Every structure is written in C-alpha cells, then in structure tokens.
C-alpha cells in the first residue's frame, strides 16, 4: 500500500530525533554505498532504531524506503569525493523505486515534495564515523566548504576542539595560494586554537593567511590580529590591524562591531560613541545592512559599553538581574566600626546586622578570594550559582554596604571577560566601594587601614583595582588621586605596588618634588622606582644628584638601564612563573611604560651622555657559578 500524506505529519519531528538514525546510516553507507542494499537495510533498521518516527506510518517499511532515497541523495560519501549523488528520478509511467509495483506517478511522485529530509549537514555524521586520517584528503576532494565549516561549528559547540583543529588545519597546509572562501574555516580554526590555549599556532595561522590568502582571507586575518592585540592590551596595534582589514574590504559590515569593540576595550568610550554614529549614518543608506547590527549601532551611539554588554548578557545566568539591581542601589552608609589605636591605625569590622547578612552571603556565594595581593581570581562558578545568591542580594539591601560583597561581585564580573562588563558592572561596584571607604574614614578619623588586617583587604583591593583601571585607561587624575590615598595614607606599606605608578604620575604632572620625596621613602627598591627617581631629579633641575642616582641605577639595575637607552629593543619571552627581578622582562616593562616620558623631558639623551656608553651588566652568581636573576613568582600587579 502506498504511503499516505499522514506520513508528512511526522516530518517536523525528524530534526530532534535523527541523531541515532543518521549516524547509523552514515556508518552503513561508509562501508557499503550500494543504494539498493542501503534501502533494504534502512527499511529494517530505521523503524527499529527510532520507532516514534514510523508509528503513524500506514506502511513503515514503505515509508522508510522513501526516506532512504532522500537520505542517500544528501550523503557526501568518500567514494564520490564527498560530493552528494542524487539517485535518478523515475519517469512518470516507470515502476516506482519503492518496490510497490505501481507507476511512479500513482505512488511516490506526489510525495516527492513532502518527504525531503530537513537541511541536515550529513558530512558531520560521515566524519563522525571516519578515522581522522581522512581529514587530510578533504581539501583536494569535492566536499562543500560550508559543510566543513558547519561540521567544525557543531564539534566546537560540543567541545571537540582537537577534532576541529585536525579537520581544518590541512586546508592551510602546503605553499600555494589560499582562496578567500576559506575565511569561514580560518575563523573556526582560530576559535579552536584559542579554546585549546595555542597562541603560537594562532599567530602562525595569521601569518600564513596574510602571506598566501586572497583579500577576503587577509581581511579576516587582520581582524583576528586586531582582536589578539587587544586581548594582550596593545590597543594601538589592535586599531592599526583593524585599519588594515578595513582597507582590504571597506564594505564588510562586521567592521562596525569590531571597531567599536576595540575602542571600548581600549577605554575610548567617547570615540566608540562617535564611530557608532558614523557607521549608523552609513548603514542607514544600505538596504542590505544586517538589521541586528543596525540595532546595535543605534544603541552604541548612545552608550557603547552597555550596548555591547546587552548583546552578550544572555549567555550569563543572573547577569541581567544583577544589572537591574545596580540601577536601584541604596545610598552608601556607615555599617562598619573602625577600631583604631592611638596612632590612627585601624581595621574595619562589620556591625552586627551586616555581619549576620554577610554570613548568609558566604553560605550562598562561591567566594574565590585571590592569593596574596592579586587583584582578582577567576571565579567561573559565581554566576553559575546566581540563582542562590541573587535572591538574597535582592532581599537584603544591607549587603550593598558590605566591602566583602562589593569585592566579590566586582571580581566575579571581571572574570567573565565580557566586553563592556567593566564599565557597566565592575566600575559602579568599585566606585561604590571607594565612596563607602571614604565615608568610613571620615566618620572614624582613622589615618591608616593596613593590608595586614584581613578585615581591611576587601576594601583596599577594591581601591587598588579601581586605581589600576584608571591607569589602564590613562585616567591620570583618578589614578593619581587614588594611588596617593592608598600609598601615602591608607596603606603606606604599599602591598599592591602602586608607588611606582604614583611616582610616574607625579612626574607626568610636573610634581617632581613629590616624586623625589616618594622615592626617598622607598630606598633600594625595584628598577621602576630607582629610574623614575632619577627622572624626577632631572625634571626638578637637580642634575648632579640625578647623574649620581643614574650611575647607581646602572650598577644596581643594569638590564633596565641598558634597555631604556637602547634605540631598539625586542620584547623578551614571558615567563609563566612571574617576573624575574633584574631580568629582561622587568627591564622591558619599564621601557614600555616610561621611555616616552624620558624622551619628553629630554632625559634620554642626557642619560646617554652621563653614562658615556651602555651600562655593563653586573650579574649575580649562583652557587654553581652560572648567572641568574632573582625570580619572583608573582603576577605583575602585586608587590614583590
């Protein structure tokens, strides 16, 4: 009996129920691609593997053969060079292929338009049942590039990043030119290498694409280089790479999102807003411009950071609720006692009601306080557990007066790594902590809140984190005000190592005497303080003292002085365990952060004249007689 149109009613269920059936079909055809044998197998296997698909069919075997024909036609088989091979359609009066004995026009022809498989990428299932060795031959086959890209996307969603690399890397081998259509594969391969933590391979792929790729692939490579540079904090290089991409393809709509993202990452929010307005005016004249990007531009023209975060927040449980809570905070209020001694040295203690609320918070929030003086620690579990702690935060407004809670939330938000998260969430939390701490200091008359007291640490960490944000975004006024408050008042022990940046800020502001006084408070310090002390003396016109200090620095910090004075310097390889005191990375960091200031004050040429030649390196000897710098295994933004 011929199948009825009732069979079409179950086609809508295929997409969600085909996994087992499709993989089994791919395995069968990979071993034997004879259409008749496959149809016989499918007629028996399909109703058994997934009976719910055939339950309503009048004749399950007949319906299975009809599906088998369509499935065979979309299966990219190795024997056919991974191209699909549709079976010939019978003539209207020919016997039907299903074996019913009826003419095709009276049997399956009316159902031809009703029974095609949904758009399923069968290459994915073929490769699922194939050994990895076959991947190398795919670039020379007839396989569709979009099917390869979709396979990579599905595997990536399932966390199969090594399989993605094995699948896509052969497409970029050899020495010949690379077609622009490979750009989609390049993107997927770069994402997989990122997930696997392979920065060197990503750089090599970019160089390959730039050297051998067509314009489209080169454009994609420059975009990737821009993102990598931004991730490393080299925002000037990121924007230059973006401009290279834009020159190659000025009309690529993705440039709009990328440029605004790069500017936000660099902290240039006003410039991001202006560029959003520019792109919006241009896109409004383009009828084919993607509507979602157009909507993003409209919102970015008002508030770039918030617009970008709006796009991403759906991926993070509880993030939207937290943002809503931040819009209705109670005003800061004194809810801590500041116990202090006769010298004004104190420590913060929450008042009883706040202490009880904090105890509930710690039971529900997965805290991850960083070790030593690190400013943050990855805390991926925080938002995954937001259904536990967000209701408490909404019920207990008193928690917004807690330094411990503000510290937890700021670090958790920062660890998400989302574009706009710092401006939309982290900064409001840190600014509140700063305002709250000033309120407590003024109310108590305390002069110092040292890091040594554990109760003080959340508040001090918030102030230090806010200072570093200002430093990273060249907000010198805010950075100087907060660093001065921390180093000269709250915590003179300077556990967060802000005395060096503070001294540089003093010199940049022309406050040379303040810089000199700060340097004298910390004698025999790191290269940063010693060399900036020299610069401050020079800027104050005390050149004889500056020359003596420079010679002492050349003796105590030879690598830093040598790298500072060198016309060109290559960045040394980073040590995964930290920065070596007296090593090349410490020297490089000082050069990067201060050389322009030395040039601006005319001190660079002066220093070269004082020393007469590049300083010799006095290298300490280890007990075995080999030279080695002292090693500290701490991150950059901590005190040694």
Give a quick set of tags describing it.
640 residues, mainly alpha, two-stranded antiparallel sheet, elongated
- Outline type: elongated
In what range is the share of β-strand residues? under 5%
Strand order of the largest sheet: 1-2
Structural class: mainly alpha
**Helical segment count:** 31
Query: Low-confidence parts, pLDDT < 50 over ≥5 residues?
Result: 1-13, 614-640
Produce a short descriptive summary:
The chain is mostly helical and 640 residues long. The protein contains 31 helices and four strands.
Strand and helix map with partners:
Blueprint: H1 14-17, H2 19-31, H3 35-49, H4 51-54, H5 60-73, H6 122-128, H7 145-157, H8 161-168, H9 183-195, H10 199-212, H11 215-231, H12 235-248, H13 254-265, H14 269-283, H15 291-300, H16 304-312, H17 319-326, E1 336-340, E2 346-350, H18 352-364, H19 381-384, H20 386-395, H21 403-416, H22 421-444, H23 457-472, H24 476-490, H25 499-508, H26 512-521, H27 527-539, H28 543-556, H29 558-565, E3 580-581, H30 584-600, H31 603-611, E4 630-631
Antiparallel strand pairs: 1-2, 3-4
Would you kindly provide a written description of the structure presented here, covering whatever features stand out?
The structure is a single chain. This protein is mainly alpha-helical and 640 residues long. The protein is built from 31 helices and 4 strands. The protein has a two-stranded antiparallel ribbon. The chain has a two-stranded antiparallel sheet with strand order 3-4.
């Amino acid at each position: 009996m011929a199948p009825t149109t009732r069979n079409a009613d179950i086609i809508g269920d295929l997409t969600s129920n085909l996994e087992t059936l499709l993989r089994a079909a791919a395995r069968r055809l990979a071993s034997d691609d004879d259409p008749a044998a496959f149809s016989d197998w499918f007629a028996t296997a399909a109703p058994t593997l997934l009976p719910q698909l055939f339950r309503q069919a009048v004749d399950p075997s007949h319906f299975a053969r009809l599906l088998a024909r369509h499935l065979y036609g979309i299966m990219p088989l190795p024997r056919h060079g991974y191209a699909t091979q549709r079976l010939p359609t019978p003539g209207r009066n020919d016997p039907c292929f299903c074996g019913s004995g009826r003419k095709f026009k009276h049997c399956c022809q009316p159902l031809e338009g009703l029974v095609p498989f949904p758009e399923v990428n069968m290459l994915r299932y073929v490769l699922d049942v194939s050994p990895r060795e076959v991947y190398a031959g795919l670039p020379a086959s007839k396989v569709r590039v979009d099917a390869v890209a979709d396979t990579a996307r599905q595997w990536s969603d399932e966390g199969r990043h090594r399989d993605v690399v094995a699948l896509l890397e052969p497409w970029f081998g050899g020495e010949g030119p690379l077609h622009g259509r490979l750009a989609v594969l390049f993107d997927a391969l770069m994402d997989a290498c990122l997930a696997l933590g392979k920065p060197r391979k990503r750089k090599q792929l970019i160089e390959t694409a730039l050297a051998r790729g067509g314009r489209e692939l080169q454009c994609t490579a420059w975009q990737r280089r821009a993102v990598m540079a931004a991730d490393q904090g080299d925002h000037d290089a990121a924007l230059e790479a973006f401009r290279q991409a834009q020159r190659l393809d000025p009309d690529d709509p993705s440039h709009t999102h990328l440029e605004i993202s790069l500017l936000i990452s660099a902290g240039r929010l006003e410039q991001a807003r202006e560029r959003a307005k520019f792109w919006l005016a241009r896109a409004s004249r383009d009828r084919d411009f993607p509507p979602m990007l157009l909507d993003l531009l409209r919102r970015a023209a008002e508030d770039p950071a918030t617009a970008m975060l709006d796009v991403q927040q759906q991926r993070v449980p509880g993030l939207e609720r937290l943002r809503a809570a931040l819009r209705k905070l109670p005003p800061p209020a004194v809810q801590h006692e500041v116990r202090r001694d006769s010298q004004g040295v104190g420590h913060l203690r929450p008042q009883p009601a706040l202490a009880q609320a904090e105890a509930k918070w710690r039971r529900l929030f997965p805290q991850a306080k960083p070790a030593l003086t690190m400013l943050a620690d990855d805390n991926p579990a925080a938002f995954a557990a937001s259904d536990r702690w967000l209701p408490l935060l909404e019920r207990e407004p008193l928690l917004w007066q807690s330094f411990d809670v503000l510290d937890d939330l700021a670090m958790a938000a920062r660890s998400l790594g989302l574009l706009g998260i710092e401006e939309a969430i982290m900064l409001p939390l840190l600014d509140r902590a700063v305002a709250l701490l000033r309120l407590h200091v003024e109310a108590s008359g305390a002069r110092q809140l040292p890091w040594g007291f554990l109760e003080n640490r959340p508040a001090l960490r918030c102030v230090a984190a806010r200072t570093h944000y200002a430093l990273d975004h060249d907000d010198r006024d805010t950075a100087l005000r907060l660093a001065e408050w921390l180093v000269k008042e709250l915590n003179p022990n300077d556990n967060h190592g802000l005395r060096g940046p503070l001294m540089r800020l003093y010199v940049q502001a022309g406050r040379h005497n303040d810089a000199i006084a700060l340097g004298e408070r910390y004698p025999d310090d790191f290269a940063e303080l010693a060399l900036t002390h020299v610069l401050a003396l020079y800027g104050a016109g005390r050149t004889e003292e500056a020359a003596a200090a420079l010679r002492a620095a050349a003796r105590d910090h030879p690598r830093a002085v040598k790298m500072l004075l060198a016309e060109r310097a290559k960045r040394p390889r980073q040590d995964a365990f930290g920065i070596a005191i007296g090593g090349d990375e410490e020297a490089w960091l000082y050069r990067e952060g201060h050389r322009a200031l030395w040039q601006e004050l005319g001190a660079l040429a002066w220093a070269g004249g004082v020393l007469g030649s590049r300083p010799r390196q006095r290298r300490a000897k280890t007990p075995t007689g080999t030279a080695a710098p002292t090693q500290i295994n701490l991150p950059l933004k901590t005190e040694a």
